[in-house]
């Protein structure tokens, strides 16, 4: 069977499952994706409300909820609106919760409103009072002291005023093009010039707040105080200066969120790079889907803006505080109060064995597994940098989904291209990193790197690096890095991920086949021991889950422990239900969206689902199968979602070395399953509750940090589901 036929067959299998389930049965068996996502963001908000977290970390969590919500609105809500507008409502298949687009939208409206209210309640009733106790103040203009006001005015005149372009809306001055998520000020103005005695109608004025400036301006204050003023508050205080000749009747900050989905079509006349670049230009001007505006805004301003942006009333969100809460991240970074933040943590450095002279010799003797950020990411950087510098390395291949500015890995690839064959697969469609990825792709090409963009219509999401080296003994060997996270040293400090470094011939040969698929779409008879999407992964997962059911029925050890970001694929969920009914004990650690309904008698009573939201973003994917006593553990880049299984190029890889298998099972998975501090348990009704605390409080991430620092001992017992092995 060809690659394309295999992919088509996999899609048909998923579609058949979707169409076969009647609406009522779907509602009983599955949770809605979007409502599940909102519950995840609610769990992040709970961390902002949790007084046991350091105060500035709580502010940071609130900012994260706002950033998350932005993406949800500009992608998910915008996508629903787009499908309704295009007339696809009745033609669309039911979603995970058995709803059509219009029904989903109606259910989301109230949840969105309630969530925004909860965000501002957290800010006004919990964080602001706590900050005031710590002498951290976000002040209004009228609250400033003479000294602070003088400083703010000087800052305004030197740094702000030259960047402002005030506009009055009239036939000669149409409404300015407000870019996506740009903070603006709307002002209701009345011309002071005398007319013919008739009352002059109010005019609307608009000023865009410069994105290049910090949203919070630090002010001088008394010793021990940290005082700030919001940039738009400072600009608003000078409205009369900007609009001389007008009386300022009212003013308010507002922000418009636009449809940010990219709609690409394959055109022979355009490269993928040019197509993405053209669509990015359109994204900034997409249809408006949400208007956020000060809660005290005059009704006339609100209505004029609503009509201008062609929004329904439900799409207007009045805020009882700063319009853009995500910018509170600046408050976290600008407030130099380390006692109000998490203590600094540095991951454990990897050390070579006594007999190895370099990393390559170490890998010829054993695999190396790293659990970031508890293990330093510098080992991965060193792997790429050493390859770039090593004269024995003949060629390098790597995927790049997201990386960071001034990344050592990026620099190493450019340096390596001077005297080696270097191939990089750059994913241009990594959401909201498209601009930077286009720049990196061009820089790599200019340096002589062979740059490819994967297979059109499928994101390259797998995390792979492959080196070919002529070793000192004259033998040409391959060395590979396989990971669950992006090649991004910045996010590696606060995302949990797994890295595997290996020279196993069967593993590195399979990685080579994946690169051949990405650069030439060539077929391979097998990709074993890897599971590769969209080719073999979906069916392989079903096989592994079904195998556990067979073991359970035969009385052999049968258990699944699976950690991922999201679980939405219907066929996979149904396989888990079947395994549960067959007697398989299943523990799922799902950070975000989960459509599976656990704990339902006769269906999923042996399935437990937990979500952990803490200091680090849980991003690793780890899948353990008891397999009748011959345990198999896989890690990789793919969640159990249709987009990962059918629409992206993904890789799951086995961890084979026994000591690494034990570490995954007895240290890492066991810690997450024991957590009773940051874990929430999914209930059959879709709500989450805190894990019950029977005995000593246990925080998995804190424990793993102590392990890295050498101040904690390993787990004394295996996780649930493995106790009988």
TrEMBL record:
Ribosomal protein keyword on record: no
SUPFAM superfamilies listed in its UniProt record: Phospholipase D/nuclease, PHP14-like, PPK N-terminal domain-like
Keywords from the named record: ATP-binding, Kinase, Magnesium, Metal-binding, Nucleotide-binding, Phosphoprotein, Transferase
Positions contributing to Mg(2+) binding: 402, 431
Domain Polyphosphate kinase C-terminal intervals: 359-522, 530-693
Region forming the signal peptide: none
GO molecular function: ATP binding; metal ion binding; polyphosphate kinase activity
Lineage: superkingdom: Bacteria
Polyphosphate kinase N-terminal domain location: 30-138
E.C. code: 2.7.4.1
All residue ranges annotated as the Polyphosphate kinase middle domain in the record: 149-331
Cofactor: Mg(2+)
One GO cellular component, as annotated: polyphosphate kinase complex
UniProt entry tagged with the keyword Ribonucleoprotein: no
Modification note: An intermediate of this reaction is the autophosphorylated ppk in which a phosphate is covalently linked to a histidine residue through a N-P bond.
Biological processes annotated in GO: polyphosphate biosynthetic process
Catalytic activity: [phosphate](n) + ATP = [phosphate](n+1) + ADP
Binding site for ATP: 68, 495, 591, 619
Active site: 461 (phosphohistidine intermediate)
NCBIfam families membership: poly_P_kin, PRK05443.1-1, PRK05443.1-2, PRK05443.2-2
Assigned protein family: Belongs to the polyphosphate kinase 1 (PPK1) family.
Biological function: Catalyzes the reversible transfer of the terminal phosphate of ATP to form a long-chain polyphosphate (polyP).
PANTHER family: POLYPHOSPHATE KINASE
Protein name per UniProt: Polyphosphate kinase
Protein species of origin: Edaphobacter paludis
């Amino acid at each position: 069977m060809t690659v394309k036929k295999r992919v088509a067959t996999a899609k048909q299998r998923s579609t058949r499952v979707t169409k076969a389930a009647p609406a009522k049965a779907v509602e009983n068996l599955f949770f809605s994706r979007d409502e599940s996502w909102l519950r995840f963001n609610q769990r992040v908000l709970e961390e902002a409300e949790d007084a046991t977290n350091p105060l500035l970390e709580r502010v940071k969590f609130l900012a994260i909820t706002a950033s998350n919500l932005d993406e949800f609105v500009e992608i998910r809500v915008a996508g629903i609106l787009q499908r309704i507008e295009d007339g696809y409502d009745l033609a669309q298949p039911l979603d995970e919760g058995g709803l059509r687009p219009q029904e989903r939208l109606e259910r989301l409206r109230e949840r969105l409103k309630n969530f925004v209210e909860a965000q501002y309640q957290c800010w006004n009733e919990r964080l602001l009072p706590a900050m005031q106790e710590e002498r951290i103040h976000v002040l209004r203009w009228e609250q400033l002291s003479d000294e602070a006001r003088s400083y703010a005015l000087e800052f305004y005149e030197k740094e702000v005023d030259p960047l402002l372009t005030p506009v009055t809306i009239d036939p000669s001055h149409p409404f300015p093009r407000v870019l996506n998520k740009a903070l603006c000020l709307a002002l209701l103005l009345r011309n002071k010039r005398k007319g013919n005695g008739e009352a002059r109608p109010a005019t609307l004025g608009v000023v865009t707040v410069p994105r290049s400036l910090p949203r919070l301006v630090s002010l001088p204050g008394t010793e021990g105080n940290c005082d700030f003023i919001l940039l738009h508050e400072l600009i608003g205080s000078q409205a009369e200066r900007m609009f001389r000749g007008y009386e300022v009747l009212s003013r308010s900050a507002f922000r418009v969120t636009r449809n940010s989905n990219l709609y690409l079509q394959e055109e022979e006349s355009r490269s993928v790079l040019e197509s993405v670049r053209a669509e990015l230009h359109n994204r900034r001007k997409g249809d408006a889907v949400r208007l956020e505006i000060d809660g005290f805004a005059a009704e006339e301003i609100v209505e004029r803006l609503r009509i201008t942006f062609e929004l329904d009333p439900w799409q207007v969100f009045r805020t009882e505080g700063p319009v853009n809460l995500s910018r509170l991240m600046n408050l976290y970074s600008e407030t130099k109060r380390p006692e109000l933040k998490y203590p600094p943590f540095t991951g454990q450095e990897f050390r070579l064995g006594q007999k190895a002279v370099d990393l390559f010799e170490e890998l010829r003797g054993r695999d190396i597994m790293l659990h970031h950020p508890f293990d330093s990411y510098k080992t991965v950087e060193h792997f790429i940098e050493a390859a770039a510098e090593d004269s024995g390395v003949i060629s390098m291949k790597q995927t790049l989904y997201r990386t960071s500015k001034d990344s050592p890995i990026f620099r190493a690839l450019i340096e390596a291209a001077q005297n080696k064959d270097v191939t990089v697969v750059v994913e241009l469609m990594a959401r909201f990193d498209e601009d930077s990825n286009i720049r990196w792709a061009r820089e790599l090409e200019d340096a002589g790197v062979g740059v490819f963009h994967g297979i059109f219509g499928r994101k390259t999401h797998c995390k792979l690096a492959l080196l070919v080296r002529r070793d000192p003994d004259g033998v040409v060997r391959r060395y590979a890095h396989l990971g669950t996270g992006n090649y991004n040293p910045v996010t590696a400090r606060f995302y949990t991920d797994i890295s595997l470094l290996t020279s196993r011939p069967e593993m590195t040969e399979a990685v080579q086949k994946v690169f051949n698929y990405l650069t030439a779409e060539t077929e391979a008879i097998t990709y074993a021991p890897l599971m590769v999407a969209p080719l073999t992964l979906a069916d392989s997962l079903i096989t592994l889950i079904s195998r556990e059911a067979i073991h359970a029925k035969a009385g052999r050890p049968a258990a699944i422990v699976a950690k991922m970001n999201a679980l939405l694929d219907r066929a996979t969920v149904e396989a888990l239900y079947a395994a549960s009914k067959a007697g398989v004990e299943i523990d799922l650690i799902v950070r975000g969206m989960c459509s599976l309904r656990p704990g339902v008698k006769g269906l999923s009573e042996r399935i437990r689902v937990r979500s952990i939201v803490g200091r680090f973003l849980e991003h690793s994917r780890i899948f353990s199968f008891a397999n009748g006593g011959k345990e198999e553990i896989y890690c990789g880049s793919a969640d159990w979602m249709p987009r990962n299984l059918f629409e992206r190029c993904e890789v799951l890889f086995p961890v084979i070395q026994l000591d690494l298998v034990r570490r995954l099972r007895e240290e890492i998975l066991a810690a997450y399953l024991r957590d009773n501090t940051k874990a929430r348990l999914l209930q059959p009704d879709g709500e989450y509750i805190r894990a019950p605390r029977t005995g000593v409080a246990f925080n998995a991430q804190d424990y793993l940090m102590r392990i890295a620092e050498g101040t904690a001992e390993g787990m004394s017992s295996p996780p649930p589901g493995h106790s009988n092995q």
